[in-house]
Amino acid sequence: MRLRFEIPPGPPPPERAPDRKSGRLDALIAERAGITRSQAKKLIEMGKVLIDGRPPSKAGGRPKAGEVVEVDIPGPESGRLLPEPIELDVRYIDDYLAVVDKPAGMVVYPAAGHAGGTLLNALLYRTGGKHAGVGAPLRPGVVHRLDKDTTGLMVIALEDKTYYGLLEQLKSRSIRREYAALVWGGLRQDEGVISARIGRSRTDRKKMSTRTRHGKEAVTSWRVVERFHQAASLVHARLGTGRTHQIRVHFASVGHPVLGDRTYGRKTRLELGGRIFPVPRQMLHARLLGFTHPVTGEKLEFESPLPQDMAEILGKLRDFHGEREERSGG
Q: 153 - beta bridge partners?
């Protein structure tokens, strides 16, 4: 895949100290191509990047306004993205984008250990092969993602202008994303904001953590919808930023991990009145998604009902809560 873009004029001086990575060549390529900064650095070192037709001297250089960056992104060694006839709940689709309701257990795009059977394989079949030309080779058009065991709404761009338009809305925090989460324990307040930087864990590089030296700003606002004594709370959480595993990491950091989260909480079963109920996965669902269509300008908003497994756990909590209320004469 060939990626080409021009460096725009620089913004006015920021009021606070700028991000050290802002404007770096590897960071710009990573953002435009939908790859990691280390992958972008490797492409530069391999000679796959040109600035105005010349190879850059270093990955950390800062291209000047008006310079044209060209990136040759090799295709994946293991294959290419192929359409597959997989059932997919498409809530909205046009020539520019698609909104899908992802089920639990489905990976968004091919990666190590998941060569096929992903949401993008299914969507490519639905669109007859149409997809955006930007983003990493196996995840074209993906501006945000959901973890394998998180359910709910996602928007995926089907062409380049839409991709960049959605990316800008994501950066400006104008995309509305709200999640339903069953978290362990009884939250004392009715609502709140968790503002804690998130980065790679210092002890396990596969995990994210709020205890990190180089974390990025992360903000999650939340409100309690239902309480179930000290067993659990149903919350609606809204993302102010979109860091990896943000809601899961934030709630775990304040002592209320998402039920069923085997990575950050290990609260994989409920014990209610002497009865034990397994929690099959993390009880996290992207329930609401709202944004402005980058091409038509239309305001779009979608809601998704709770998936069956989450509704069943919620039903058990409500039954137990009701029984306790009856016994106490409440």
A: 101
Catalytic (active site) residue 26 = no
Nearest to 63 by CA among 12, 26, 14: 26
Is residue 211 domain-shared with residue 305, that is, in the same domain? yes
Nearest to 295 by CA among 139, 176, 172, 160: 160
How far from the centroid of its chain's Cα atoms is residue 100's Cα?
A: 14
Q: Tell me the β-bridge partners of 191.
A: 223
Q: What are 272's strand-pairing partners?
A: 275
Nearest to 258 by CA among 234, 278, 277, 289: 234
Q: Are residues 199 and 323 in the same domain?
A: yes
- Active-site pick, 147, 149, 160, 261: 147
Domain count, the chain: 3
242-290 tens-digit pLDDT:
899 999 999 999 999 999 999 998 778 888 878 888 999 999 999 999 9
